[in-house]
Amino acid sequence: MYLRLPLPELVLEALKRRPVLILSPSTAVAVSRRRYRLSLRDWGGLRRQLSRATESTRVDASRLQGRVPATATATGGASGASETIRTDPDRRRLLWRRLERQRRGGIVVNPELDTGLEGWEAYGNTKIELRELAGNKFIAAHARNQPCGSISQKLSLQRQMHYSFSAWIQVSEGNESVAAVFKTATGFKHAGAVVAESKCWSMLKGGFTSDSTGPAELYFEIRKSNVRIQAVDKQNNPLSNATISIQQKRPGFPIGCAMNKNILTNPAYQNWFTSRFRVTTFEDEMKWYSTERSPGHEDYSSADALLSFAQRHNIAVRGHNVVWDDPKYQPGWLYSLSRTDLSKAIIQRVKSLMSRYKGQLIAWDVVNENLHFSFFESRLGNQASGDIYRLAQTVDSSVPLFLNEYNTIEDSRDGAAAPAKYLQKLRQIQGLARNARLGIGLESHFDTPNLPYMRAAIDTLAAIRLPIWLTEVDVQSGPNQARYLEQILMEAHSHPKVDGIVIWAAWRPYGCYRMCLTDNDFRNLATGNVVDNLLRQWRSEALFGSTDSEGFFEASLFHGDYEVNITHSSSSSVTFQITV
Fold first, then answer.
1. Is the dihedral of CA 411, 414, 417, 418 positive or negative?
2. Helix, strand, coil % in the chain, rounded to nearest 5
3. CA dist 199 to 21, 129, 133, 137, 139, Å?
4. Predicted model pTM
């Protein structure tokens, strides 16, 4: 994509160029429908199983050494029965068949590229070619001009099959977050992601559950882009040695943290927070029990002060929350109201809060946790949530109105908030509030993360094509807290359908809700180090340099808004904005 900028004394030509995406080696991608599971780390276990199949049998795995393929496998769906192995010879033959099937790539056509590009196609207006280096075949996707520009293959999936996935990935320069995506009739299935680097191979591992039977298309997506800017004079002659600076003004992917009123009087807290985050949610200060402790006596002073602080520091704010369906978290005076008076109180609450902050927020959590709880439904009828969203839409239609729920991606055992139940509730609300702009809020209070389930759940929710945010991310205390937090954040950031993340770690001197990022002197804990490291990886630092002999300057940038300044001795300085 070319951008020509006619300026008074300087003409700039900006070429957004994507790095080459390389898929390899040996077995590029494989997906198997067989009811077994094998990954690289399982190889030793499989070899032990084979060696024990009969006393006289020893397994020779030398023909696979150094070539354990990047593959994917699948376990059977809910109705899939495991196979019964009755004899040692049968078991040995079955295990070998399974291994051979996986080594050959499962349902992927030509996984080891033995027949050239058979089965593989270009995706997203790009070019692909088969290459070979040191005996290793691979496919390179080049001349990319879209984030999804990559190789692809059309596959056929079966409903309720659990597909695991792996592939070796490399990029031509720098490092990029690369995600594998399956495009299906019901939506996009995110199968995993990895930060790929140049000059070495990185393994992308993941999986998903197919919710339909039919065709699908595999492709890869990169969140980061290379931008190539050329400076030329009015006669189109390149300007060499022009000074250029590129500064990110706002990340394309918002990552924030909750805050509370403690920040208003604590300079150390202020400095720590504002140097990191550009989006926030107020922990308690907008909630009904905080703003109206007695009927008719509203006090928005804390919320006003926090909003003013956020605005001064260019921090976007999510409104949280309008009402909460959990009976434990209501203003004390609400419990004794009659049905009529409760309905009036809710109308007053919605109008008062949302009109006060209309135009100053980026989203609203309208009815909090209405899959697990039903305080308002039990008193006003099953349509209560829909009525509240309809009213909210009339008061502030400028931003998305989110459901906000826990355990939808955290815990597969919680049927009350399963993705199917979430979508059912969304459709119910859409039926009552037909023109409402809705959003999917996933609280993300994790114990031990199940990343394949998290990925599959987000895929299911993404089918409805509404904005998705992880709104209250934290992990229970324990020796693996920081590691789990890193896994969750990386999984969310790499998912192409997740639009933003808020970490639930507002600081209090007596301890955070479940997870802190710093100690009381605002020195990072292990969790804070994880966040800082990821923010550095996902944020483009200010770049300074000069154009080459042809007037070009190149940079690899994460998606977002940037300010570019170019100065040359033969002309005046020019500043302009670009969005990557």
1. positive
2. 25, 35, 40
3. 12, 18, 12, 15, 15
4. 0.69
Nearest to 450 by CA among 417, 424, 475: 475
Q: Which of 369, 443, 486, 491 is catalytic?
A: 369
419 confidence band (pLDDT: 50, 70, 90): very high
SS3 529: helix
Among the ranges given (104-108, 145-149, 200-204, 523-527), the one the predictor scored with the smallest mean pLDDT: 104-108
And the tokens for 480? 């693996």
Which residue among the candidates 221, 283, 472, 486 is catalytic per the annotation?
472
Give me the residues paired with residue 247 across strands. Answer: 563
Q: How far is Cα 521 from Cα 268, in angstroms, rounded to an integer?
A: 8
Sign of CA dihedral 108, 72, 452, 524: negative
Q: Is 268 exposed, middle or buried (0-12, 13-18, 19+ CB in 10 A)?
A: middle
φ, ψ dihedrals at 500, nearest 5° = 180, 165
* Res 264 pLDDT > 70: yes
69 and 111 in contact (C-beta within 8 Å)? yes
Structure tokens at 455: 């990925």
End-to-end CA distance of the chain: 11
pLDDT for the residue 518: 98
For 98-102, the CB contacts below 8 A with 24+ separation are 98/34, 98/36, 98/38, 99/38, 99/46, 99/64, 101/32, 101/34, 102/30, 102/32, 102/34, 102/38, 102/69, 102/71, 102/73
The tokens for 47 are: 């070899």
Identify the bridge partners of residue 157 per DSSP, sorted by sequence position.
Answer: 214
- Closest to 229 measured CA to CA, from 10, 408, 450: 10
CA distances from 270 to 112, 263, 312, 508 (A): 54, 6, 12, 13
Number of neighbours of residue 181 by Cβ within 10 angstroms: 26
pLDDT tens-place string over residues 316-333: 999 999 999 999 999 999
Q: What is the pLDDT of residues 148-162, one digit of tens each?
A: 788 899 988 888 787
Task: State the DSSP H helix or E strand holding residue 578, giving kind and residue range, or none if neither.
Answer: strand 571-579
As a whole number of angstroms, the distance between CA 434 and CA 364 comes to: 17
- Mean pLDDT on 404-429: 96
Structure tokens at 56: 């006289």
Average confidence (pLDDT) over 154-179? 81
Question: Which residues, in sequence order, are CB contacts of 122 under 8 Å at separation 6+?
Answer: 128, 141, 149, 151, 152
Peptide bond into 321 cis (omega under 30): yes
pLDDT of 479 strictly over 90 = yes
d(C-alpha 519, C-alpha 506), whole Å: 12
Pick the residue with more confidence: 63 or 138?
A: 138
107-116 average pLDDT score: 83
Q: How many Cβ atoms are within 10 Å of 257's Cβ, its own excluded?
A: 23
Range of lowest pLDDT (120-129, 216-225, 267-276): 216-225
Is 369 part of the annotated catalytic residue set? Answer: yes
User: Lowest-confidence range among 60-64, 138-142, 541-545?
Assistant: 60-64
35 bridge partner residues: 74
Judge whether 472 counts as a catalytic residue: yes
Per-residue confidence (pLDDT) for residue 17, from 0 to 100 = 37
